[in-house]
From TrEMBL:
PROSITE patterns, per the entry: EF_HAND_1, EF_HAND_2, PROTEIN_KINASE_DOM
Any one GO molecular function term: protein serine/threonine kinase activity
Start and end residues of each EF-hand domain: 359-394, 397-432
Annotated ranges, domain Protein kinase: 68-316
Name of the protein in its database record: Calcium-dependent protein kinase
Segments of this protein annotated with the region Disordered: 15-55
Statement: the UniProt record of this protein carries the keyword ATP-binding: yes
Naturally occurring in which organism (per UniProt): Paramecium sonneborni
UniProt entry tagged with the keyword Ligase: no
Amino acid sequence: MGSCSSQQMKISMKAKLSEVKQKQSLTTTPNRQSTQQNGMRSHSRHNTHTAFQSNSDLSQQGYSLKNINFFLVYRNTNFSSYYSLLQREDKNFPFTTIQHNNTGTVRIIKSYKTSDSKYIAQLLKFQLHHPNLIQQFEIYEEQQKFHVAEENNNKIVVLNSKIYNDEKDIAFIFNQMVEVIEYLHHQKLTHGHLTLQCFALFGDKYLKLYDLYHLFMKKKPTIEETHFLPPEYFENQEYSEERDIWSLGIILYHLFYQCSPFESTTASLLKLEIQASNILYQNTISDEAISLLQQILEKNPKKRVKINEITKHIWFKKQQVFLLDEQIKETILRLKQSKKLNILQVYLLKFIINNYPPDKLREIYSVFRSLDLDNDGFFSIQELITSYSEFVEDSDNTKIICMNIFQKVDMDKDRKITFQEFILYAFDRKELIEEDVIDTSFKLLKNKKNFITAESLSIQYTLEKEFFTDIMMELLKKDYMTFQNFKDLMNQTV
C-alpha cells in the first residue's frame, strides 16, 4: 500500500475501526490438542441443541456480551502520552523498550510507516490472542507513523541461537510452534514466511511467534528464507497451510541437526535442490523423530501430514509433553466452583487477564483444547459431559452438574463455550485479585482524575460509551468507579 496524507490515513483508520466495531465476539481459540500424556482421546460429535434452554443473561437483563475478545487499543496520539522511552535497541537487546508512566510496566515499542497501514488495520481486525503469539496491547498513530506496544521479557532469545540436545526439550518447543500455527490456520490465516528467526524464547522455555508483520505483509523471500520454502512454491508461490507445515518441518530439522537439509547457496541451485527434496536423515535422532520429519517434509503437498495430526504422532506421545489428567480435572472443578459474574465484572476481569503474563495462560489454553473434542474452536454441553465423566466422575448427577456449569459459563447463550468465556471461569481468580495485580490493572485503565470511567472501558473494547454508562449506572449508580469500587467488584468474584 502506498503512502497517503494524514487526513486520508485518519479516514482510512476510522473506516477500519468502524468495521472492527461490527465484529462480534467470535472465538479466537486455537485448535484442540487431542493427545495427552496417558493416551489419546477420540470422541464423536453429539447433537447438543436440545440440551437445555436458559433465559439468564449475566445477571443484567438487556445487556449482551460484545467485543469480549478485543484487547488491542487504537489511540490517535503519541505513545509518549502514556509511556516514557526507556532504552533504544542495541546489539545486546534488539528492541526499543518503553515504560508505562503510571504502572512502570516495561513493553517493547515497534514503529511502522503509513505505507504499513494495511498491517495495522489487519491487527485491529483479527485481534489475535494466543499464549505463543507475541501479545500486542496498543497502537498509537502520530505524524505519519504507527507505534505498536508489545509484551516484553528480559530473557528474550531468538530461537536460531539456541541449541537443543534433548528430544524432549525439542518436543516441548515444537509443540508450541505447531499450536500457534494451527491457531492461525483456524483463523483462516497463513504465514508463508516461517523461519527460525520468526520465533523467540520468552524466558527459559516458552516460545512466541513474534513476526506478525509478514503474516499480513507478504514479500519476496531472501536466499536464507528460501531454505524454508516447499517444492510447490516454485510452481505457484501460493500461501497455503501446506506451505506453513513444510516450513515447520524445516525448522524441526534445524532443531534436530542444527543445519538446513539443503546445502546450496545460490538461488538457482537451491531451487533445484528443494524441488528434488532428496533429504537425508542421520540416525543421530530417534526413529520416531525421523518418521515425523518424513511425514511433514512430504514432497507432495496433498500427502503431507495435516497440522492437527502432527502432535498426534507417536514421537510426541513418547516425549510426554502434554497435560496430566489431574490438571484437566482441577480446571473443570474450577468451572463448577467459580462464582457467576455480572456483566461489568466480565469486562473488568477480561481486561486483567489480557494484561496478565501470557505464559500463565498456557495451561488453560491446553485444557480448553482437551475439552473441545471435535476441534471446532468451542465445546458443547455434550463435550463437557463427556470430559466431566472422564476426568471428574461419571454419576447420575453428572449431566445436571454439567448443565449448571454450562448455563453459567455460556454467557451469550449460544449453546457453545468459546475460549473467551471459558477463561473467565477457568482462571484461578485469587491470582487475579492480588493487591499488585489490582493496583496495576486500575492504573492501566484509570483516567487523569484517577477514575475508571465508561469512556475508559469503551476505548478498551471499541464500543460506544453509552453501553458502559448504562451498565455502570445500573450497578454502581454512577458512570465511574474509584480504586475501592474496582477492588470491591473484583473481590466479589471469589
